[in-house]
Structures are given as C-alpha cells and as structure tokens.
C-alpha cells in the first residue's frame, strides 16, 4: 500500500483529477455529482475513497491526482480520526497547495462531536486551507462544488501564472473576521467563530455564502490588535481573490 505522490505520473491532456477522502455517504456522492454538472472547459476525474491508503493493485489504472479534499463531518469523531490516520499515506509534497480540508455539518453545530480547535490545528499543522460547508444543503453544495473546481483547475496547472502553493496561501490568509461577518449575517453559528489564542496565528478559511445570497465576502486579514484591521492587506488580498475568480 503505497504513499500517494503528486508527481509520480504524467498529467493527462486537458484533464484533472480530484480525490475526495472521507466516510462514504450521500453528501460526498452528491458533491461529486454537483461538480460533474458544472460547466467547465476541461475533463475531470473524481475518485471517492473512505480512507487511505488506496489499493496498490489498481495504482497502474489510477491517473495522477491533482487535488485531495479530506471530508470531515463535525457530527462524527470517527470522521476526524479517519482523516488523521489517512494523512500518513500522503506525500509531503501534496501539502504544497494540493490538499484541503472540507468540513461539513456546520449548520448543525449543536450536534457537533468534533472539537473545532482540533480542525483548526489540522489545517495549521499541514499548511492546508479549511473550508466550511453544509453538503446537505443544495445551495451550499453547489457553491462548494464551484470552489473545488476552481481549486482543481489551479492545482492541475490550467491557470497561467498561478501556482497551487500561491493559491493555497491566499486562501489561508482569509481571516477570523471573515467568520465573524458570516456569523453576524447568520451563515455560521457562533461556536465556529471562536478565535484562537492569538490573532497572529494562521488565518482560517471560511466558505463563500450560499449561491442564493449572491455575495462574496471580502478577504480580511487581522493585525495583531484584534480590534483593528489592516485595510491595505484587505484591498490587496481582495484584489488577488477577484483576479482568481474566488
């Protein structure tokens, strides 16, 4: 059972591959179907796995994987433990922008079985963005599918001048204040917007509001003083986000 490596195979012409890793179930399958329904100018391959490692006997049939999305259900402690165990089978080079953590179930925080600090720490330890969503809601599922497709397009090298690492760092620069704005708007419960021990910690990534809202939040970056915002950073990061279509 081999470790997944990002560059051990040649890329396929006009195509990209994403691997969704997490407990098997309806939401994960529905997310894959939503990605397939979106309009795109390249072919996508979507592979679903409940955990890693993948069976080695089918490795010669498997295309090069451009992006790995680990799906964590905050209602299940097993879901987090499964992802943590699977990370041991991912080559370190994948964490240069080709991994993200997809956290579902945020609309039912009262039934949360996973400590949010554990999820924040996972994103920080592996230098990968954390995306919150609710895959059982169609509007958010479609928005999440669109976002993953854009990430996949960049990770597959189909956006000139933008590397997967740069894009990942841009996403991770989304700040705690983004979560606060979403909380005020009623998109996220307060329990998901708890700040870490210091405002200088790595910033968190929040989900774009549902497509029905018709808004994109500006990316805000906190200074060391949590009561003030670095507006120059806000404008620069928001400008970069608009250029990349996120």
UniProtKB/TrEMBL annotation:
GO CC, one annotated term: nucleus
Keyword Transmembrane: no
Name this polypeptide is given: Centromere protein M
Entry keywords, A to Z: Centromere, Chromosome, Nucleus
Location of this chain's protein in the cell: Chromosome, Centromere; Nucleus
Statement: the UniProt record of this protein carries the keyword Cell division: no
Taxonomic lineage: Eukaryota, Metazoa, Chordata, Craniata, Vertebrata
Highest taxon listed in the record's lineage: Eukaryota
InterPro entries xref list: Centromere_Cenp-M, P-loop_NTPase
Organism (species): Gallus gallus (Chicken)
